[in-house]
Amino acid sequence: MTEKDYYEILEVSKTATGDEIKKSFRRLAMQYHPDRNPGNKEAEARFKEINEAYEVLKDDQKRAAYDRYGHAAFQNGGMGGGNPFGGFNFDFGGAAGGFADIFADVFSEFMGGGRGRKQSYAQRGQDVRYNLSITLEEAFSGLEKEISFPSTETCATCHGHGTKDGSEAPVCPHCGGSGKVRLQQGFFVVEQSCPQCKGTGRLVKDACPDCKGKGFINKNKVIKVKIPAGIEDGTRMRVEGAGEAGIRGGENGDLYVFVNVKGHKLYERDGASLYTRIPISMCCAALGGKIEIPAINGNKIELTIAPGAQTDQVVKVKGQGMPVVRTERRGDLFVKLRVETPVNLSARQKELLEEFRSIGKEDSCQPEAKSFFDKIKDLFAA
Ligand SMILES: [Zn+2]
Ligand SMILES: [Zn+2]
After folding, report:
1. pLDDT tens digits, residue range 286-296?
2. Ligand 2 centre from 179 Cα, in Å?
3. Residues with beta carbon < 5 A to ion ligand 2?
4. Which ligand is nearest to the CA of 171?
């Protein structure tokens, strides 16, 4: 709890009106709100102070006590017998954190909420998320997939009204149709979902027997989704109206299909480009030749290796990558070569290789290209 003057904290005079205090509080709270100052401890401390000061000065009774006794009014043994802020945790971990709950009454007005508003009768259904995992081959060719997921459907008996006779559901008398009730807890007012209508704002006495008054029934939905060729990992596809049923005539929610493209044992992908590593024999590397490599579409591609190929050399195969979504274009395939050293040589092979070595320029294991050690020497000479 701060020892600073509450009026100073809120940057108002001691004679400020309630409106002036409120205005100043809003301005400062917006300025120092942790969401706007991530990681700024000073702003967070400031924000707490501002809220603490406002909690007192916005209330005429508390303000009068503060004017008379200062901070002592709110310390143990003071007004109300106990620190009203004791045990009160400000949690700014998530987006807006406890902020929204505590100051809902102040902020709802200028955040466009407006407390106590009657909920509109028809309500849009919930959106549904579906995670779809496909292989790289499927992403290459595109596909139509039937998916099934738990959802809701408008009750046909009551046409979504939830009433036995299918008429419009009456407004909940407990909350006046807002679906929310406010409870006083100490100094704080807590808003809760109306326990009578469970937050719907409507209370059905004579409920439809088929949906028990909810206006919808749980049902597994089965729909076909078309995945375009070349779809990228992490793509989100929206299927309008395929989400949960709208309530009391509201429109349906949407279905969002999140596409995950699984990894591949041979290819790596970056956009429309594909990458792979292919081993070639030492002789092929030295003398050149042709090799066959598998393409993503299942075909085989003939690749010409030029003489003198090296490990990590990349050969580009044009147009053998992934398709670019909704175009006729295809990316390229990049093949990285890896020269394999022969093992388990026969006596004859050894003989030939020894001979090969002996007619080389140097009878050593250093390659002909400028050696690593020469490079080191250059480095020291410089
Ligand atoms: Zn019904
Ligand atoms: Zn209610």
Report:
1. 999 999 998 99
2. 5
3. 172, 174-175, 194, 196-197
4. 2
Full-model pTM:
0.58
Split at pLDDT 50, 70, 90, the class of 93 is very low
Q: Which two tokens stand for residue 276?
A: 């792979």
By CB neighbour count within 10 A (0-12 exposed, 13-18 middle, 19+ buried), where does 321 fall? Answer: buried
Q: How many CB atoms lie within 10 A of CB 301?
A: 15
- Sheet containing 235-239: which strands, arranged edge to edge? 128-134, 255-261, 235-239
pLDDT tens figures, 178-214: 888 888 777 778 888 999 988 888 888 899 999 998 8
Distance 215 CA to ligand 2 centre (A): 16
Q: Which ligand is nearest to the CA of 119?
A: 2
Q: Go through the domains of the chain in sequence order and give each one's CATH number.
A: 6-110 (1.10.287.110), 124-165+212-263 (2.60.260.20), 268-374 (2.60.260.20)
Q: Which residues make up the environment of ion ligand 1, defined by Cβ < 5 Å? A: 155, 157-158, 208, 210-211
Mean per-residue pLDDT over the chain, rounded: 84
